[in-house]
Amino acid sequence: MTAPRLRVAVLASGRGSNLQALIVARDAGVLPVDFVVVGSDKPNAGALQLAKDACIPTFTLNPKDFANRRDFDFELFRRLDASGAQVLVLAGFMRIIDGEALAPWVGRMINVHPSLLPKYRGLHTHRRALEAGDAEHGASVHYVTAELDGGPVIAQARIAIQPGDDEGQLAQRLLTFEHQLLPAVLKLIAEQRLDLIAPNRVALDGKLLDTPLQLRHGALVD
Ligand code: GAR
């Protein structure tokens, strides 16, 4: 008998190219997961249409319909609980989440962030890397904790900043690596090879990582 596939929920606020990369990996047979729901805070998010096209159930919650962030977040997680998801992926979900609301999901919730964390938490990461004159830039996938973009980093992709790069070019070039990084990390989770060791360490195959895994030629290496 084959093992049941991991049930995954995805939250996204925008165009959804990372969601699309996950769906492509699943369809290619390299990512053994089922997507049980895609949620968004933006009714027009491209991610919702991509999910519908892939026959994944969707929902939208409008923050304006809630008295405060905390009420929104508790309703969000009520929906995610109801979906039966075991793991939650933030794929361009552009909201800060209440620490108490997310607490039950710590250890089974990951986020893709366009910087080499701990550098450049928050917004405008590409611009900040360029302004700092950095030689390299990158993306990180990390476990989500109450600290914004502060949870333990699982894996990173690094790219060189080229002379003449502007913010858009850099973002676009990095995105293609995000599309490899996120499915690769989710695959490790689906294979039950990754753990968050409280409070802030990552273990691969039961061994603590001293540094994040690195994406090289499409594969994650220690
Ligand atoms: C991605 O670059 C992702 O790393 C970033 O938003 C973009 C979403 O693109 N996430 C964050 O900045 C989270 N702090 P997508 O909608 O095409 O996947």
UniProtKB/TrEMBL annotation:
InterPro entries reported for this sequence: Formyl_transf_N, Formyl_transf_N_sf, GART, GART_AS
Domain named Formyl transferase N-terminal: residues: 7-186
Catalytic activity, as annotated: N(1)-(5-phospho-beta-D-ribosyl)glycinamide + (6R)-10-formyltetrahydrofolate = N(2)-formyl-N(1)-(5-phospho-beta-D-ribosyl)glycinamide + (6S)-5,6,7,8-tetrahydrofolate + H(+)
Catalytic EC class: transferase
Active site residues of this protein: H113 (proton donor)
Single biological process term from Gene Ontology: 'de novo' IMP biosynthetic process
GO MF annotation terms: phosphoribosylglycinamide formyltransferase activity
Enzyme Commission number(s): 2.1.2.2
Pathway: Purine metabolism; IMP biosynthesis via de novo pathway; N(2)-formyl-N(1)-(5-phospho-D-ribosyl)glycinamide from N(1)-(5-phospho-D-ribosyl)glycinamide (10-formyl THF route): step 1/1
GO cellular component, one term: cytosol
Site (Raises pKa of active site His): D149
Binding of (6R)-10-formyltetrahydrofolate, residues: R69, M94, R95, I96, I97, N111
Family: Belongs to the GART family.
Name of the molecule in the record: Phosphoribosylglycinamide formyltransferase
Source species: Dyella japonica DSM 16301
Gene: purN
